[in-house]
C-alpha cells in the first residue's frame, strides 16, 4: 500500500505517493486553479495522475493527506479562507473521501512541511520549519509528531507584532513580523520588484539598488528575529528555513548567519543559544509539504 500526500500551493499542486519504506515512489505536479471547484478538481486529478505515474491502481492507495494554507478544520476536513487559492470554504476531506473511499486528512501546509522536512532531512527531536513564503509562519514537529497547539495556532509567529510603529497587517494588528519577513512584506518594502520581488532582489541589490538592499536587510533581520523567537519559545534542535524566499539562497544564508553571529557577539545570553548552528535551509525542490502531508495523515 502507499500513502498519498498533496501540497496545494498558490501556484502548483504537488502530489507524492509514499511507499511503506518512506521512499517517494511517484510524484506529480499540476498548476493550481483558483476557486473551490477548481481546487477540488485539481486535487482529484492529481491523485488519478499519481496512480497512472506510479503504475498502480487507485485501490493501492491507503490514505490521502493534504497540506493547504488557510484555516483548517482537521476534524471536519474543511478549509476556510485560503485567500491565495480563492477558497472561502471547501469541504475537501469529505469530498475526496467520497470519491476515493479512503481516509483523508487535511492539515496546515506549514505543519505538513515541518513533518516532511524532518523526515527527508533525517532530523530528530524537535524541529521547527520556518516558512518564508508569501506569508510567514512556523510548523513544529516533536519526534516526528506534529505539534499544533489546542487550536492550531502554535507557530503562527508571523503575527507577533515587533514594531508598534510598523505597517498595518491584514490580521488587524500593527508591525507584525509578517509585514517585514515575507513575500507580502517584501512587495511593500520594495514595490519596484513587482509581484514576485524575491526573483530580482539579489540582482537589483548587487547592481546598487539602495531600496532593494534596504528591503533585503529588513527581510534578513525579520528572519533572524524569527529564529531567535523559535529558539526562545520552543527551543528546537533544528530550525529549517523553507518557503519561496528561501530561494534567495546563498546571499540570504550568509546574511542571516552574519546577523545571528552579530547578536551573539553582543549578548552572552544569545551566544549560549548557538543560533547559527541550529539553522538549516531546506534543499531546493524538496517536496517537504507533500511528503509531510502523507506522513501526518497517520498521526
Ligand atoms: Zn499580523
Automatic annotation (TrEMBL):
Keywords in alphabetical order: Kinase, Transferase
Which InterPro entries does the record match to this protein?
A: ATPase_NBD (IPR043129), ROK (IPR000600)
Annotated SUPFAM superfamilies = Actin-like ATPase domain
The UniProt GO MF terms for this protein read:
kinase activity
Q: Which Pfam families match?
A: ROK
Family listed: Belongs to the ROK (NagC/XylR) family.
Q: What is this protein called?
A: Putative NBD/HSP70 family sugar kinase
Q: Which organism is it from?
A: Rarobacter faecitabidus
Amino acid at each position: 500500500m502507499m500513502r498519498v500526500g498533496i501540497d496545494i500551493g498558490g501556484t502548483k499542486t504537488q502530489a507524492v505517493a509514499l511507499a511503506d519504506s518512506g521512499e517517494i515512489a511517484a510524484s506529480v505536479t499540476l498548476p493550481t486553479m483558483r476557486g473551490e471547484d477548481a481546487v477540488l478538481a485539481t486535487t482529484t486529478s492529481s491523485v488519478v495522475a499519481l496512480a497512472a505515474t506510479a503504475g498502480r491502481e487507485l485501490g493501492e492507495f491507503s490514505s490521502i493527506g493534504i497540506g493547504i494554507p488557510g484555516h483548517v478544520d482537521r476534524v471536519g476536513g474543511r478549509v476556510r479562507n485560503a485567500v491565495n487559492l480563492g477558497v472561502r470554504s471547501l469541504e475537501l476531506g469529505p469530498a475526496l473521501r467520497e470519491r476515493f473511499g479512503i481516509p483523508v486528512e487535511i492539515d496546515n501546509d506549514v505543519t505538513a512541511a515541518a513533518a516532511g522536512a524532518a523526515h527527508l532531512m533525517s532530523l530528530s527531536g524537535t524541529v521547527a520549519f520556518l516558512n518564508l513564503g508569501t506569508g510567514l509562519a512556523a510548523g513544529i514537529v516533536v519526534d516526528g509528531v506534529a505539534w499544533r497547539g489546542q487550536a492550531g495556532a502554535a507557530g503562527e509567529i508571523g503575527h507577533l507584532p515587533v514594531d508598534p510603529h510598523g505597517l498595518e497587517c491584514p490580521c488587524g494588528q500593527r508591525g507584525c513580523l509578517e509585514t517585514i519577513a515575507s513575500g507580502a512584506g517584501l512587495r511593500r518594502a520594495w514595490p519596484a520588484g513587482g509581484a514576485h520581488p524575491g526573483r530580482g532582489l539579489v540582482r537589483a541589490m548587487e547592481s546598487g539598488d539602495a531600496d532593494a538592499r534596504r528591503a533585503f536587510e529588513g527581510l534578513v533581520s525579520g528572519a533572524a528575529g524569527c529564529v531567535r523567537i523559535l529558539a526562545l519559545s520552543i527551543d528546537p534542535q533544528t530550525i529549517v528555513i523553507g518557503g519561496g524566499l528561501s530561494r534567495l539562497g546563498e546571499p540570504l544564508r550568509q546574511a542571516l548567519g552574519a546577523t545571528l553571529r552579530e547578536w551573539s557577539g553582543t549578548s552572552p545570553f544569545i551566544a549560549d543559544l548557538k543560533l547559527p548552528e541550529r539553522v538549516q535551509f531546506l534543499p531546493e525542490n524538496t517536496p517537504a509539504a507533500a511528503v509531510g502531508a502523507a506522513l501526518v495523515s497517520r498521526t
